Task: structure prediction
Amino acid sequence: MALPQRAPLVLIPLAFAAGVILLVRGMSGMRPRRQLLVLAGLGLTIGFTFFVMVQMPEFPQWLGISLMVVALTAAPFATRLFVRSVMQEDEERSKEESGGH
Result:
């Protein structure tokens, strides 16, 4: 019994979603610069997927939309983690400066 031709394409958004979820969960242990790179990667992924959807009419629209939804859903969580890390780093730096004087 052969798999339908679209079955492997269905696995792409699922694998992408799993990868993004793991990446966002792992962001809490990263330094802010690496977190910024993760956010930049999410932005590039969104832009590249949109570009491919517009330029290639044969690209499955449902696949592009599902990839965009995953990336756009994860972006606020990743951004919140990044901002929280930057604020914590700034607080630690200000404590060190005030404690040293």
